[in-house]
Write a structure and sequence with these properties.
two-stranded antiparallel ribbon, 85 residues, alpha+beta
Length: 85
């Protein structure tokens, strides 16, 4: 919950237990009435360092139907994409 709104948020935690990335789902599923109870994120997924040698990104569920979202982190060097469903 941010600013009294509920988001579908994915996050990545490193080996030390620190949150190193989070992403709010941008595309809500109209058939499931998600817009009735969730707020859409307003930022594209970002590339982040998963390990010293690996850059990654994460996208949530219905967002995979919009492949242009993956272009942003790919251009920033993301080598791995996690699709959380």
């Amino acid at each position: 919950i941010k600013n009294d709104k509920v988001y579908n948020t994915a996050f990545t935690v490193n080996q030390s237990g620190e949150i190193i990335n989070n992403y709010d789902k941008v595309h809500l599923v109209p058939m499931l009435q998600e817009p009735d109870y969730l707020e859409a994120g307003d930022k594209v997924p970002e590339a982040f360092q998963l390990t010293d040698n690996v850059s990654a990104t994460q996208i949530i569920c219905y967002d995979l139907r919009f492949p242009e979202l993956l272009r942003y982190p790919a251009r920033k060097g993301a080598q791995v994409a996690f699709y959380v469903a």
